[in-house]
Amino acid sequence: xxxxxxSQAAPDRRPPAVNEDLVLTGPDFAxxxxxxxxxxxxxxxxxxxxxxxxxxxxxxxxxPLLTHSSASLxxxxxxxxxxxxxxHADTCDVANPDxxxxxxxxxxxxxxHVEHLVLADSPIVVRSPAGQVTVHSDDRIEQLPERTxxxxxxxxxxxxxxxxxxxxxxxxxxxxxxxxxxxAVDAIALLTDGASRFSERYGHSWxxxxxxxxxxxxxxxxxxxxxxxxxxxxxxxxYDDASVVFLQGP
Length: 250
Hints:
single chain, alpha+beta, five-stranded antiparallel sheet, about 30% helix, PPM-type-like_dom_sf, Protein phosphatase 2C domain-containing protein, PPM-type_phosphatase-like_dom
């Protein structure tokens, strides 16, 4: 499949702030990561930034994906989370539930099927040759009974709460996963929520999102999101880092 991608920092970010999204692609795989920006005043117990965590996760994911590991995507991600945790356990409080974290969306192409994994709010959208659209998403954070700092802290990476890539390898096995016949896949989009808001916040259909990607590419999709952002009165941050990977073709 042909792959194109983009990762763009929120336009209102100011130095030394950096893009906390990251895109990783190879001949038969694609990954998007979206680091969770820590609210002001929250002590993570970690001397590293969210961007540091996202980069370490990507670096560790690259080797098994590029070397065609026979492990499943949850197994790969669990090993990666454990390795990253070990890498800073001597300098940071990795038991702190507010430790830096990230969403994960991954696809891996096999000769006869496509494997996917979604952890937290970075969805994967798949269209079949017949035009049927399927959205693989993980909305558990949206289903929390309350979204206070205390509640999110208590329910992060806990049964009955929500799961993210941070310091708990078990989170990988709580991801939304599955396989789709390769013949039933014509296009795939992996999106962080700064891009998926085109549909999730601004009301465009997933079909339209895929049409924009197919006809005009990922950059234009993000431009259209920014046009909405500029005039939006929705709750939450006006702008967000936005990343898209688009795969299309046989």
